[in-house]
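Q: How would the structure tokens look for this protein?
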Amino acid sequence: MVLRFGLVSLAVDAVSDGARPLAGPLLAQLGASALVIGLVTGGAEAAAQGLRLVFGPWADRTGKYWTFTLAGYALTALCIPLLAVAPALGAAGLMLASALIIGDRVGKAVRSPAKTVLLAAVAEPIGRGRGFAVHKSLDLAGAFAGPLIASAVIAATGALWPAFAVLAIPAAFAMALLFRMRRRIPDPHGPRVPGMLDAQTDSDAGASAARQKERLSAVFVLFAVSAFFWSAGLVAFGVIAFHLTSTVGVPVAAVPLVYAGGMAAAALGALASGYAYDRAGGAVLLVLPALVAVIPVLAFSSGAGPVLAGVFVWGAATGIQDSTVKALVADLVVPEKQGTAYGIFAGFEGGGALAGGALYGALYGSRPALIAAVAALQAVATVLLLATVIRSRRTGPAPESAHGPEPE
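A: Here is the predicted structure in token form.
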């Protein structure tokens, strides 16, 4: 199931990430300033994270994890190809493009908690760090291929809109693959999903799990607060793309290639941190704030070399955030509340992303101030993350099920 979800993510991310590096140049072409681009791209990331606070608990309450998964993927499959229409609409194009860019990320919010609950359950027997890492590496293969497709189309046509239109092809393929997969894999609250533990009623185990969840709740909140601070310093790629085209002079057609390089670095970061997590635990995540602090130092330089290095560091940080971080969340929360937990955690990340979008937009013209602000945010994130790691080791992992047998 890990591999199947990875293949679906590969196809969908070819769509979403094929368009993502073009958001900044597209908005700039439609008349947006650096501040507007920062707010739109930061707001999009905030929607991708913050709205999970709604959809995660909703999925837990209804148990319809597949409904949310399908709806979220469908929203991305519709919004991205429709960006091809925006340049033809004149002044209204900026509003439409902004709405569609945010709509794509809303789709991410709709599907992500439900999909991650399934993935966390079936990945546990092989190690959650490894399971999330393998899934993320497949996901990032799509994130690598999508920008290459977009770059080739832009180079051939000399325009942005055909790149968005072509992405309708992998979008249709992804949805077909997803519906085929849905027929073979049930919701976790229906027939048993392969790899998941059977749930049997046991009042003593349930009471023990409830006490464990209560004891770990403070650790989970501490971890979520640390996520706000590192997310506030992790710049959206749209702002980096704006810098590449407006200051460094990189051609628009080359921006997707740069983004693809960042996604390759993200895959390496996810795999390395995921396998290390299964051996060393949450301490491996302490590298994340350090990486985030380095990004503005490199990515907003005037030379192409340091900027490219900054993109690779940005990619590695993104890969860790989108994979290994989720493994620790799953280990801090009982399965019955994981959808809710992922939603709450993503709400903190989304708030940080929105604050970061405004921060980068406002301080873009003052690089020393921007570097100092991000460094201060990451210092706070490091302290909170260190406290999370220490307290999680004292309390131990959450039980695998409130009612099921203990893991072997």
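The radius of gyration is 20 Å.

The longest helix spans residues 91-123.

Upvote if useful.
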